[in-house]
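Quick one, T. Sequence first:
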Amino acid sequence: MTNQQENNEEGGTRTRPQAPTMVIRGQAIKNRKSITLLGVTIDEKMNWKEQEARAIGRGETWLLQFRRLAKVTRGVSAKYLRRIYISVLLPRLTYAADVWYTPPLI
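Structure tokens:
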């Protein structure tokens, strides 16, 4: 086991012991910075930054595609855009949000 330095919130550094390598049936399991399980990215500090960035990126991609559908002259009607929004976009963006999303305190 080796020690690893990291920056803390006060601007200083502290030494943190590195997690030991896990061995199962003689097979070494490597430590990773993050892992994706059931579409949710979990990082080693459980601060959900990667999951938030991924959700924002997916939302931006959908927004651009949605804009293409909503053109005034040759686009889809508002009725069908609302159906797509409710049935496809909202479930995709809010998938597992109760696990990783913390609303801002006002």
